[in-house]
Design goal:
Keywords: Cell membrane, Membrane, Phosphate transport, Transmembrane, Transmembrane helix, Transport. With 430 residues, the protein is mostly helical. It has 2 domains: 87 residues, no CATH class; 227 residues, MetI-like fold. 66% of the residues lie in helices and 0% in strands. The chain is built from 16 helices and no strands. Helix 3 runs antiparallel to helix 4, helix 4 crosses helix 15 and helix 14 runs antiparallel to helix 15.
Amino acid sequence: MTVVEHLPPTAGPVAETVAETAPVTPELPDRPRRVGGPTRSGVLSLCGAAASGLCVAVLLFGQIAPFSGGLGFAVTWYAAFLAVYAVLTSLEEDGQAVRDRVMTVVLWTASGLLFLALALVVGFTAWRGREALPHGNFFTQDMQAAGPLDPLSNGGVAHAMLGTLIMIAIALAITVPLGLTCAVYLNQIPGRFSRFVRTIVEAMTALPSIVAGLMVYAVWILGLGMQKSGLAAGFAISVMMLPIVIRAADVVLRLVPGTLTEAAEALGAPRWRTVWHVVLPTARSGLATAVILGTARGIGETSPVLLTAGFTAALNADPTNGPMVSLPLAVFNFVKSPEPTMIARGFGAAAVLMALVLVLFVIARVVGGRGPGHQTKRQARRTARASRRDIQRYAGTNALRGAGPHPFAAPPRGATSPHAPAPDNGDRHQ
């Protein structure tokens, strides 16, 4: 904008002189505001707040107050860091941005602490079991012919690995169909009884594992006179896994849009077909996560297995006959020994257990990792064959009725579709 626009029209030569001498301000290009990512001021504020918090903690613990302890020093440093960071951020941003920056730092700190704890657990277990893991016999032999004083070249955890796989397979065979069916019932059939079942499931999530083991021990072993076995341990583990799977699957099924089920029912599909072909495929990845959570809860149980499966040092592949041991129970018995070789076997068995859980998680993620609407090649071929059969069936039905081909079928080559507009030969305007 120039000065001429603010001068009256009668200014005459004065306006022309001012317009010639006034500097013209160039228009600056619009620059988009940077929303995410670190900025230089943000990084400097973080570093300055961290240094200021460290100085405050050093003064309080070394000069001003008689404080002591490493944990208190870390907490004081972090609290002072947050306070100084909030003050520095408020110099440039408003209140909402300050709260956003502070909460972002808190969440990143919590995530870092959780990752650090996980890395310490995994790293410490692998480090303590490094003496037993390199031996090949550790994965192929049992402890029947090895004692506490034998070297690590004798004995292994093959019996515990096989027992864990058998027990978790029995528990999954019981838990997955019952858990998913109960979750579908809670989600699709609301009512008083479904609310009662949901309350029972939520209460069972806090059930101590020793209570589940005692229940199976009292009913299966004392009441029915059965012996301790891997089957009884599978029953006890399934009791612990079932509420986790039901609760997680129920939450996932609630996230399925209601418009999908309404569209399926509007097309005439019954409720069971809608659930089987629409609801469950849509929530497939979430249901796999629910099974993963239940598996993680059941595969690390020790007390139910101790009460229902007993303990043995020999390999037993029959879950219905004789005692059976799992990896958590083997770890519990190994680390109780004062011998360094047995302790190394215990940490090695714990590392194998973590690796086994990781493999099971990967398998479950591969099975249920496809998103809604994504089909495998086999499912796509089966869907195409079903579509061709439907087209042939519709064409045969219409031919019997004399109604011509199916309206959705492709017209023959060179033929004109009955729904296409008539050709314009120029007679319309005559």
